[in-house]
Amino acid sequence: MSEELCLLSASALLEGYRTQALSPVEVTKAVLARIESLNPRLNAFNLVSDQALEEAKASQARWLSGQPKGLLDGVPVSIKDLILTRGWPTLRGSKTVNPKGPWNEDAPATARFREHGAVLIGKTTTPEFGWKGVTDSPLTGITRNPWNPSKTPGGSSGGAAVAVACGMGPLAVGTDGGGSIRIPSSFTGIFGIKPSFGRVPAWPLSPFGTVAHVGPMTRHVADAALMLSVMSLPDARDWHALPYEPLDYRAGLDAGIRDLRIAYSSNLGYADVDPEVAAIVRGSIGVFADLGARVDERHPGFENAGPIFQTHWFSGAAALIRTVKDRQPVDPGLLEVAEQGAKITAAELIDAQMKRGALGMHMNLFHRDYDLLVTPTLAVAAFDVGQETPVKGRWTEWTPFTYPFNLTGQPAASIPCGLTKAGLPVGLQIVGPRFADALVLRAARAFETVRPVALPDLSRLPS
Predict the structure, then answer these.
(1) 284 noted as active-site residue
(2) Which of 23, 80, 186, 232 is catalytic?
(3) Could you say which DSSP state residue 458 is in?
(4) Which of 187, 269, 302, 346 is 20 to 30 Å from the Cα of 237, by its Cα?
């Protein structure tokens, strides 16, 4: 029964609480037991709450009195360790952050979950300052993929993805500054969405600037829609935030995709993609046509956005490292990127900003003809832990499909679409026009009805 509780969706948990078939206390105990069993082998959490059971008891009392608190009362939620959480240190995977704090404030997402009664279960691991697409750090070591512990779960929200994939809580908060929700979602076989920029208020602003987003990671699309309904509530501390729209993103989720115009691009016209990954994604595209959409194979028609992104990202890394007094314990790869970023001139950064604007306009125009763009999420399947990249260059070399849509601020989701011969998940990316978050969720939900998420066989994990 304990294992079954850990694999229930948030929606199922809430229905169980409403009917008193389930209790927040028994669910929280089951999740904590699962973390205790699996975390030493996978390293998804770097902090587990010692107050979770007390929060669950308070939630249970509210349900028994018929007065639940908000939309997520009693549901376990994990918070990525880049996101401020009152009373807990936010160490950001770095030995350079003082754990003594003070830690007196919640980030907007954390505050909204508290207000809606969620049980905050712990903080999930991240590479140092979230700088790369895999999850290992000088502070917390290596986080491993539950499908094969010798492989990376991706990053930077790798701990969050592993937690969700393994039933260590149904909901996880991730961040995405170049793919950091979608990369680990693809590698671990879960659903994750990077909402439109500004949809989810964020504070403090990421050192990597306006490419950085906060979003949901779940096993079920409906759970992500529920999370987004809470996370998108307004917070005055984020002056980039979009005007608040009082939407329940679950509304219309099952409306289907009949007659939507979908462009499928196998490689954006320029990316090198592992043949097996490409074949798995191509083999899943027919699902959209079967569901009534009109699918064309068409590239969006922009040039490789890597140089634009790297100018933004590397200069952000340089600004970040300038605030670090003792650089000796810092991840060497981050120092290398910061060193490259320090060489970027103001003229080069402004030029990249202009090109970013042109890219955004190009995609606005593209979406006059197509409601959605579908691509592989990544160019590769999960590779061995302990390395930043399986190919020459930096992590951006194997993530060509994710970071362009950080530059444009469009909503983009990864949903699993199959397994490699080695048994590793492959993700399919669904990209919508700016602000069309609900449409991306609806398309993902339609796909999910045909290709439900599979879970890793945890019985094969080494003890």
Answers:
(1) no
(2) 80
(3) G
(4) 346
Q: Write down all domains in the chain, each with its CATH number in brackets.
A: 2-460 (3.90.1300.10)
- Cβ–Cβ < 8 Å for 165, 414: no
| Backbone phi and psi for residue 398, each to the nearest 5 degrees, phi listed first | -110, 10
Closest among 291, 434, 265, 261 to 364, alpha carbons compared: 434
Check: CB of residue 180 under 8 Å from CB of residue 189.
Answer: no
Predicted confidence (pLDDT) per residue in 142-198, tens digit: 999 999 999 999 999 999 999 999 999 999 999 999 999 999 999 999 999 999 999
Residues pairing with 48 in the sheet: 122
* Max CA distance (Å), the chain: 62
Whether residue 182 contacts residue 376, with contact meaning beta carbons closer than 8 Å, is answered with: no
Helix (H, G, I), strand (E, B) or coil at 176: strand
Distances (CA, A) of 314 to 66, 69, 342: 51, 42, 8
- In angstroms, the CA 395 to CA 375 distance is 19
Helix (H, G, I), strand (E, B) or coil at 224: helix
Task: Work out the burial of residue 234: count CB atoms within 10 Å of its CB; fewer than 13 is exposed, 13-18 middle, 19 or more buried.
Answer: middle
Name the catalytic one among 59, 94, 180, 206.
180
C-alpha distance from residue 275 to each of 17, 46, 65, 82, 347 (Å): 46, 36, 56, 34, 39
* Type of residue numbered 127: P
Q: Nearest Cα to 242, choosing from 250, 234, 254?
A: 234
The predicted pLDDT at position 1 comes to 63
Sheet of 119-124, strands arranged across: 45-48, 119-124, 76-80, 171-176, 213-218, 191-194, 412-419, 425-431, 372-376, 261-264, 294-297
The whole-model pTM stands at 0.98
Residue 180 annotated as catalytic: yes
β-pair partners for 173:
79, 216
Please give the single-letter amino acid code of residue 80: K
Q: One of 78, 94, 137, 156 is an active-site residue; which one?
A: 156
Strands 372-376 and 412-419: unpaired
Taking the CA atoms of 75, 114, 47 and 319 in sequence, report the sign of the dihedral they define.
positive
CA gyration radius, the chain: 20
Residue-wise pLDDT for 348-392, tens only, equals 999 999 999 999 999 999 999 999 999 999 999 999 999 999 999
Amino acid at 405: F
Q: d(Cα 11, Cα 272) in Å, to the nearest integer?
A: 39
Tokens of 83: 């996101």
Strand 136-137 to 141-142 pairing: antiparallel
**Alpha-carbon gap, residue 77 to 114, rounded angstroms:** 10
d(CA 78, CA 65): 26
d(CA 180, CA 170) in angstroms, rounded, equals 18
The letter for the amino acid at 218 is: T
